[in-house]
Amino acid sequence: MAGGKGQVQGHQLRFTVLGPVRAWRGEQQLATGAPQQRALLAALLLRGGRTATAPELVDALWGEDPPDAAIAALRTYASRLRKVFGPDSQVLASESGGYAIRIGMGALDLDAAEHLAAEAEKAQHSGDRPKARNLIAQALNLWDGEPLAGLQGPYAETQRIRLSEWRLSLIETRLSLDLELGHHAEAVSELTALTAAHPLRERLRELLMLALYRSGRQAEALAVYADTRRLLAEDLGVDPCPELSELQQRILQADAELAVPTTASADLGTRAAFVRPAQLPATVADFTGRAAFIDELSDQLATTEGHVMAVSAVAGIGGVGKTTLAVHVAHAARRHFPDGQLYVDLQGAGPVVADPHAVLGAFLRALGIMDSAIPDSLDERAALYRSTLDGHRVLALLDNARDAAQVRPLLPGTAGCAALITSRNRMVDLESAHLVDLDVMSPEEALDLFTRIVGEERVSAERDSAMDVVAACGFLPLAIRIAASRLASRRTWTLSVLARKLGDERRRLVELRAGDLAVEATFELGYGQLEPAQARAFRLLALADGPDISLAAAAVVLDMDVDEAEELIESLVDASLLESAAPSRYRYHDLVRLYARDRAERDELPPEERGAALARLLDFYLATAAQVYAIERPGDRLVDHLAPTKRPGLTFADHDAALDWLFTEADCLLACAQQSAHGDTLRRAADLLAAATDLAESGANARRYEAVAQHISEAAQQVGDLQAEGRARFFLAKACTLAGRYAQADEEAKVAVVVGMAAEDPVPVGRASVQRAIIALGQKRLADAEAHALRAIDAYRADGDLPCEGSALCNLSRVHLETNRIASAVEIARQGVDIYESLGRTLRLANAKYALGVALTRAARTTEALDQLTEALAIFRESRQPLWEGMAHQRLAEAYLASQRPAQAASHAEQALALRGIGGEWRRAILLTVLGKALMGIGQSGRAEACWREALSLHEQVGMPEADEVRRLLTPAAVA
């Protein structure tokens, strides 16, 4: 610390030594003079307020060869510093023939960093690893380059080494915490660069091995050890430290404790905290009856005490109370599952069930696994899920399942854990499951539930009428709850009034039956009380297939202004017929949606009005998505070729607001496109897919986008709509290309061009030709690629579509590169950049700069290439395009390799790999190849070989020609 109690404090002054030695008063930097004067300032600051004698300072500044007038020079420097400090000159004190600087706590950056590091250590010891990690990161952020930068002298050099070593130690601690917190994929890039800069530092190698292993890259982790052993033997004649050797053995044995960050890691001396989920919905306060079922299920869940996995599946008709019972039992069993409870609604009764792939992603995130560490495939996610739960006792409540196939990947599979499942279907094919069939309530239980909600006083006065009410509800808990809640909120009604209403056959079904019809009877109670406008809204809003609906979209469906629609919709929320999923977003319970749709078909609502409501919604989504597309791609003529809409859609204040809307509405947009793929809305459905193309390119919604494109393509083909088919096939081809399935993509794009030409539609002709050029490039069919690119340019010029012409030029540039026409490749790419620069900073400009950067790399103009690619990367990030972000990292890695900077190349390759699952296996293979070259350049040949072997395996799986290059890299001469 540079100051202390009772010492003179300069509150306005602050100083830095973790970089250039500087002084500040407030926000004004002070001129601290020549290097030797700053060296005196640093020497005094680093003594923590203690007095330094004149001989000590002379030795610090000049060492063994001081000038004759050294003491006089010290006095001069001190005098000048006091003048610089001005009104705070007293902080530099003269004492006992020496000097001291005394300042307040926090006025020196080193003091602040030491304080943050000490607080981080306390947080780490108390088990608060996220806080510890953030505090260390704050301390590291105080560094501004090399400590004591530019200063000479023995003291400055000694302190510079000390401070640099301390910084490296802090980085190691922060990275260790990163691994404990599940950030292993992100850490690999930094650790790769650090091991290149500090090749003999075994702690960094240890952390890199663990990060790679936890990222699913076991072969590379072992290769790091091999590289380290070789390097230590060659340079120092020693073996790796015991900790490193033990870690290698544990990796060889696939030690389960190393696999996830939430288990003990003896090698690292820490234990990462298990993230304890508590996701159970609240249990109802008036839960009634079901004692036998509670005992049966509770006994089953308690068997986990004997270290087995319990699976119980509760089946029954809609509205019978499966979820309520399961939640009640789960809460009662929490003591048996101290490590947490997971919950998910699997939407088994809806038109689109929850995807186990997405559910596992949500579960893993809830358990503390970072997005970057979550695998892409379903099997890998399920395996990581089971590994994460290993050694813990967690209950998974899987509500509203469709069938056993949906549930199987979500079962913990670990002794001590349990799964409690509800479904309308009896899961006789779910292995080892304890099946429970839940029937309607007994009359006594039904009356008890009714009484708890309505109140004992009202029921006791009209007990017979109360029994009539619960009988009319078919003894279904949900029906009873709705009827009782309505009566409880209407103090002027008597039970006999409610009984008469329910006795009216116009108010309920003639006969209550098992299955969904019983659920209809339940919702009949609420629906029958609605005003005509409410009933119409209830029916119409249920028609859309999306998981929920925004207020703006709902207003369009209802054909009214937003304020009027909000008032009407909120009244349905009050009636418990609609749920408020989030501010200005609404959703149906899946059974309520089915009932509302049935009412829409049976009531007076004609089919024409139902179709018109969905057409209005399609128009709204299409018009708004087209505006987002136009903001992202100004001048692109695609929007001019989209089907006209009767509604203008939303407008956006800026680029970010437009993208926020698109990605928030992604599921609803794609559901609307699929639902509209028929009749006179088919073409607009295809156009909605076109306008929402960013959902595919971002990678976030690529699978769903591809499925919808396939559906629309097949629907158009069946009815012979060439325009819709050509467009849908192109976007299907694009989705397949992004997934790395080139053969399927090329076939779809080929048909899209033919169909587009037959329909005289420029949209697929130009775009699918570009796509075929991209595919042919990837497959090294260079003559075909050039022909396709030229055809696309002609099509775009004929259509007057300048931005798309720029895109085709960029792809033609890549063809010229592959055929060694380097100069023309640069020139053609620059034409594309010029086109997009005239249109502003857009996503397409990033694409053009990317192409130009690639061409400049091949032209050995790497400085220019790095500038172009760095700018492209920034725009891709702004535009939320992780696929293109990863590709830009790859090209930056290649440019750094070309400029003989392999450490930076490895860093960018690792950052691209951290975007897991983006671009398919072919893209991953390309990245591994580039990473291997970079690793070879920094002396990590074993790890490089491991990367190449994995790349070769991937290339061989998909039959790509790049396999030949990787085989050459793996020859003994290349690896040596």
Description:
The protein is α/β, with parallel strands linked by helices and 976 residues long. It contains 47 helices and 16 strands. The longest helix is centred in the N-terminal third of the chain and has 27 residues. The N terminus is likely disordered. A hairpin with a 4-residue loop joins β7 and β8. The relative contact order is 0.05. The strands form five sheets. A five-stranded parallel sheet has the order 10-11-12-9-13, with helices on both faces. Strands 1-2-3 form a three-stranded antiparallel sheet, with no helix packed on it. Strands 4-6-5 form a three-stranded antiparallel sheet. α5 runs antiparallel to α6 and α33 runs antiparallel to α34.
Quick rundown:
The chain is an alpha/beta fold. Helix content is 62%, strand content 6%.
Task: Note poorly predicted spans.
Answer: 3-11, 262-273, 505-519
Percent helix, as a range, is 55-70%
What's the average pLDDT?
85
Shape: globular
- What is the strand arrangement across the widest sheet? 10-11-12-9-13
Q: Please provide the count of β strands.
A: 16
Counted by DSSP, the helix tally is 47
* Derived structural class: alpha/beta
Please report which band the strand proportion falls in: under 5%, 5-15%, 15-25%, 25-35%, 35-45% or over 45%: 5-15%
Major sheet? 5 strands, parallel
Give the CA-CA distance, first to last residue: 52 Å
Q: What's the alpha carbon Rg, rounded to whole Å?
A: 34 Å
